[in-house]
Amino acid sequence: MHHESLSRYPLLAGVSQASFKKNTIKTYQSILSKLTTQFGERELNSLSPEEILSFLTQINQNTKQTTKRTRYSQLTSFFNFVTQNLDSNFQSSCDTPMLKKFYRSPGLTRWTILEKEVVDEVIFRTIKPRNRLMLELMARSGMRISEVLQLTPSDIEDRKLTLRSPKSGKELEIVFIPKKIGDRLSY
Predict the structure, then answer these.
(1) Can you give the residue range of the structural domain that contains 129?
(2) Structural domains of the chain, count
(3) Does 35 reside within a domain?
(4) I want to staple 126 with a disulfide (CB 3.0 to 4.6 A). Which of 19, 39, 64, 132 is the partner?
């Protein structure tokens, strides 16, 4: 994939591209290109909070709230970078109560954690052996349902399971399971 040079963005004139990873550049490319298109070669100090809100509203049309917050966060991070590395006197246009309130994250979701006894009861009451084994694999080894469903006989070696393309992004992961479950998987 082609990675544009940071020199394309006048806002970043003089910033060494070597100081960033490729994924960092890729992540900020979209919002910086839109910012440059909207405001041209204007000085960052000249952008008002109202202009930033208008800009974010325009680029966030028909997007989910999470995407809106992500873009606001990217812009805020960029402005913080400018303050910390390029101009210590720079005042971020994103650093206003109005924008912070508009793009604040919702409260944390509290997950209900089931007691071990409850999990055991659910597993014990599961009638179909296939479903019971799947629940046990998830409960006893920490596997996700998608990982359990992707298992093949070649992935099973005694108590050792090989997960291919796990959600962590690694190529492979190894999971060790209790002997009782391993014995039932071997059939």
Answers:
(1) 116-185
(2) 2
(3) yes
(4) 132
Same domain membership, residue 161 and residue 98: no
Looking at the whole model, is its pTM more than 0.70? no
What CATH number is given to the structural domain containing 142? 1.10.443.10
Query: pLDDT tens across 54-72, in order?
Result: 999 999 999 898 889 999 9
Segment 104-124, tens digit of pLDDT: 887 777 888 999 999 999 999
Mark which of 54, 72, 102 sits at the end of a domain: 102
- Residue 146 and residue 135 in contact, taking contact as beta carbons nearer than 8 Å: no
